[in-house]
Structures are given as structure tokens and as C-alpha cells.
Specification:
By secondary structure, this protein is an all-alpha fold. It has one domain. The chain contains 2 helices and no strands. The protein is elongated, with a radius of gyration of 24 Å.
Length: 72
């Protein structure tokens, strides 16, 4: 129950900081989000690249196993 209450409090504080009548951080938040999109895209691309390489290696290994099992 404690994490739920803390989550609601943190969300309320964050929203209060963004709205114009609060701390008016909305322009800064938008600037941060715009700047973080290319960085996140690069990170996602690298993760997908590594997943693709691992998938190719697994496929190659499974073909080797099938080849070995078919000759037995």
C-alpha cells in the first residue's frame, strides 16, 4: 500500500511541476523529451542489432545441431 500512495504523491508532484500554474517546467520537459528521442532511438537500434546478431547465431547453431542429428 505504501508504494501505491508514494507513487500517487510523486505523480501529483510531477504534474504540479509541469502545469503552467505550478512551477511551469513544461517547456523544459518538452526540450528534454525532444533531446532524448535521438538518444533513445540509438539505444533501441543497438539493442535490436544485438538481438538480431544473437538470433542469427542461434539459427546457425540449430542448423548445425539438425545436421549432426540427421547424420546419426
Amino acid at each position: 500500500m505504501k508504494p501505491l500512495v508514494l507513487g500517487v504523491i510523486v505523480l501529483a508532484a510531477a504534474l504540479a511541476a509541469i502545469v503552467p500554474s505550478g512551477l511551469n517546467w513544461a517547456p523544459d520537459v518538452l526540450r528534454f523529451l525532444k533531446g532524448s528521442i535521438p538518444v533513445l532511438a540509438i539505444f533501441a537500434g543497438l539493442v535490436l542489432l544485438f538481438i538480431g546478431i544473437a538470433d542469427i547465431k542461434d539459427l546457425r547453431d540449430s542448423k548445425k545441431e539438425e545436421k549432426e542429428n540427421s547424420t546419426d
